[in-house]
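User: Some background: our group keeps a shared notebook of sequences we're curious about, and every so often someone picks one and asks for a predicted structure to add to the entry. Today it's my turn. The entry only has the sequence so far, pasted here. Could you supply the structure so I can complete it?
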Amino acid sequence: MTSRRSLVQAAASIGLLGWFGWAYALPAPAGPVVLTISGQVRNPNVGRVAQFDMEMLQQLPQTSFTTATPWFSKPRQFTGPLLRDVLRAAGAHGSMLHARALNDYVVDIPLEDAQRYDVILARLMDREPMPVRNRGPLFVIYPFDSLPELRSPVYFNRSAWQLRSIEVA
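Assistant: Of course. Here's the predicted structure to add to the notebook entry:
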């Protein structure tokens, strides 16, 4: 039996996946919803929004990097899907992302950041799931150590922890 991940990887390898959509319908989440993407989405799975459980995010290709941050005393390894892959799965289109955390902190992230940088929705820190008390379960994180321009307050402020939703405008 072919897994959904294998189908997605095969579709990607032959160019069937574009920025504005996935090659398959986004399934409804089977577990607790950890992320909701609303606004300009072309691939909703629950009403007019795209909802993801942790398993759905795990099924997307994963990226890991180690980077220093202003929030931890030493560099940490973060793992999760690229933000652009999550947005692609939802069929997101627009120019701005309004990211909202569990505590209602809201930050605007230009959609261009997801295309230009390897921003991830970290679900693991140092190979362990992140509990809410430690900035989880999802953390928008930039690869700060990869480019000097990313080590600035602009990008630090765009790194929303305890992410719960993204509105695409």
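Suggested note for the entry: The radius of gyration is 15 Å. Confidence is low (pLDDT under 50) at residues 1-8, 10-23.
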